[in-house]
Design a protein that fits this description.
alpha/beta, 13 strands
Length: about 230
Amino acid sequence: MITLLQNEENLIGSQEAIDELKTLNHARILTISDSHGNYNLLIKIVRKFGPSCNALIFCGDGARDIAELLELADENEEFRKCIPPVTAFVRGNGDPSTVPVSFDIGKNNKHAVFLYKGSVVVPLMQTLTVNSHTILISHGHYQGVDFGYENLMSEMQIHDASYAVHGHTHVACVEHQDNYTFINPGSISRPRAAQPPCFAILTVEKKFIDAAFLKISGSHSTEPDYSLYNPVY
């Protein structure tokens, strides 16, 4: 069960859970992007897949949906148990730099000292260390991922990260350039390039990170269907 506190690195979770994630021999990361207001579907996905994962990554354009998720978790212990112990998220081009919640989530965050009580800081970039891998998280709009990965690769070099996850294009894919891997989980609500709504689960092993994509059918139903999907792009 997640601890609803945001630390000074803008991660949500207890410091014990964040530290444990760094050394796990095997980890699963629920990776979602571009919900664009469809917080009901975001909550359904987390409810179903969150309990079997060690972390949640959200790649932007849905910060207010994350706030709704956190509000529900604060009010509902059963749902809070579904959220992985560590949550990382970043700001999309449609997101504000902070979002309000009704409880004091940022009291462990030095960046929230001058904010109203209950503000969640939404960073432009984030790093998450899992099983000794540093993963760079960015929405991708500032790095121009629509046009290539050169700028994002430069950020990865600065942060000593071999893997990056991003959103923005709404196109699920895995790309490799030199020794760098770029993963886009797609969009759960506004997919492009004739793709279905989808997200990804990352499996993090000592020597590699693998992405499995799941497409969503019947997203407006009470119980959507999820199935493995091989993105074509």
